[in-house]
Design brief:
437 residues, mainly beta, Porin, 19 strands, elongated, signal
Length: 437
């Protein structure tokens, strides 16, 4: 497949225009719109790039499913197979629709920069990776009506923020079949939750009340992984993978502010009257849960890959200070794969494209009134290779996840969503030395 350098530039410019069109609106928006994000530290995003997300999150037995190097953050042992310097950047878009008791809300759309990662080979047996990815998202708003004396009031709950993950990892081969790796990460961010008490009637002389809980979180975490690869024949191999962590302890600093305010006849908030309560800098420890993930994949070189993962997290051990805010152990199952019809096709571009698919199920750590909140999703995506330029290889990766969390039964909220991730992958020979055997 031969295209001019002008065409390459046009395609790349179109991609980056789409990328920034997706990212720029996010500066004025929160990145989640689910009431279930209020539990724990928010919605867990998972350390996954679009390549893995399109396969349902399949990661443990994934190394290099095709001609291109990919950064698989979810299992650092996979870094050991990187042959070229790899750069990956992307954005995500989230569309949600909430419903309760047969009543549906409006579609809510949020978008943000999703990741920026690098992978650099150290030698033929090892590589490092580093970057910045989201760890959790917090975003919700809902209200309940009530009465105080004869006055109608609204209890309004909202939250925003999230935690980011800056990481550095190393993976290396030990013999022909085993690879090991680890990630060291710094988690940081701010979580804000508000509880407001407002009079529903047009009472401009009455003060409403709002309490904001702000939690600044920061601390180190680490995870480790291994992969075992065994050849079934010349072109097909079996790969087993495992990752885990021993939990980590994060620092948090909580500020609480309660203010009184009034609204005009149009419902617009007037200037805040005063702060009736302020508590600054209450320090606390957050103990994260033990997590295990294991899986396998069967892979035909430059042809196809199929596999499955299972995961378990002991969220019952999660602590904010000395208490667990009602979180339960979670587990998940993923099945997914990828097909590339002909990785060396010359005349038919669509045979070069990676076609990815997956399904996933999660029993989340949220339980409301003895009702487990479960999540189901189907995923799919594509890897679109661009014409190579000298020693550089380019690919655009697109993934989509269509899922549901929760149910309308037992007066709960059903959260339906479409999550779209767009990424750009570059393979090149930056920073690399020539090795002579």
């Amino acid at each position: 497949m031969k295209l001019s350098s002008k065409m390459i530039k046009i395609v790349k410019n179109i991609f980056f225009c789409l990328l920034f069109a997706t990212v720029l609106p996010a500066t004025a928006q929160i990145t989640s719109s689910s009431p279930y994000s209020q539990f724990g530290l928010g919605d867990l995003k998972g350390s996954l790039l679009p390549q893995n997300r399109a396969m349902g999150g399949l990661s443990q037995g994934v190394r290099k499913p095709g001609l291109y190097d990919n950064i698989n953050l979810a299992n650092p042992a996979s870094y050991s197979t990187l042959e070229l310097t790899t750069f990956d950047v992307g954005a995500s878009m989230d569309i949600r629709k909430l419903s309760k008791s047969g009543i549906s809300g409006k579609n809510q759309l949020n978008s943000t920069l999703s990741h920026i990662t690098f992978g650099v080979p150290v030698n033929r047996f090892s590589a490092i990776s580093f970057g910045l990815v989201p760890y959790t998202d917090l975003g919700y708003q809902f209200s309940n009506a009530g009465l105080v004396d004869t006055n109608k009031v609204n209890y309004i709950y909202s939250g925003e923020g999230g935690i980011s993950k800056a990481y550095m990892g190393y993976g290396f081969k030990l013999g022909k079949k085993f690879s090991f790796g680890f990630n060291l990460a710094y988690l940081f961010g701010n979580l804000k939750q508000n509880r407001a008490f407002e009079f529903a009637n047009e009472l401009t002389t009455v003060f409403n009340s709002r309490t904001q809980y702000s939690n600044a979180v920061g601390g180190l975490s680490y995870d480790y992984g291994l992969q075992y690869s065994s050849e079934i024949n010349d072109k097909t191999k079996f790969i087993f993978g495992y990752t885990g962590n021993a939990g980590s302890s994060l620092n948090s600093r909580n500020n609480t502010v309660t203010t009184r305010y009034r609204k005009d006849v149009l419902g617009d908030e007037l200037a805040t009257a005063d702060s009736t309560f302020f508590a600054e800098g209450t320090k606390n420890k957050i103990n994260m849960p033990l997590t295990h993930t294991a899986g396998f994949a069967f892979e035909k070189t430059n042809g196809w890959l199929v596999g499955a993962d299972v995961s378990y997290s002991r969220w019952s051990d999660y602590r904010e200070g000395n208490s667990n805010p009602g979180l339960n152990d979670s587990y998940g199952i993923v099945v997914g794969g990828q097909i590339t019809p002909d990785a060396n096709a010359i005349t038919n571009y669509f045979k070069l494209v990676d076609y990815r698919f997956g399904i996933k199920y999660d029993k989340t750590f949220v339980q409301i009134g003895n009702n487990d909140i479960n999540q189901y999703a189907v995923t799919f995506g594509f890897g679109f290779p661009l014409p190579r330029n000298r020693s550089s290889f380019y690919k655009i990766n697109l993934s989509a996840e269509l899922g549901q969390r929760g149910t309308e039964k037992n007066d709960l909220v059903r959260d339906r969503y479409v999550n779209i991730n767009l990424g750009f992958t570059l393979n090149d020979k930056w920073f690399q030395k020539t090795y002579i055997e």
